[in-house]
Amino acid sequence: MLSFVRYALPAVVFVAGLVIMSLGSNADLEGGAGIVSAGAAVFFVNWLYRIGVTGDREREAEEEAREFLDRHGYWPDEAPPAG
User: Fold this and answer.
1) Which DSSP state fits 23?
2) How distant is the alpha carbon of residue 4 from its chain centre?
3) For all residues of the chain together, what is the average pLDDT?
């Protein structure tokens, strides 16, 4: 379902706009352009959301690494100090 919302839905809307634009009149051209724009907007809103979620994951990983450093005295990707 998520792949449909991310990729198929914007593609269907975009193609529908192109089909309407191909009908020929000025009204069809303008209406189709609006629908094409709506399809592009759906795609880019999904893209921006994924970028935002990626940032949250990176912040969570950083916080976990800092907690590990506080508990153990070294970063998780480093070897423990000798001694």
Assistant:
1) T
2) 13
3) 90
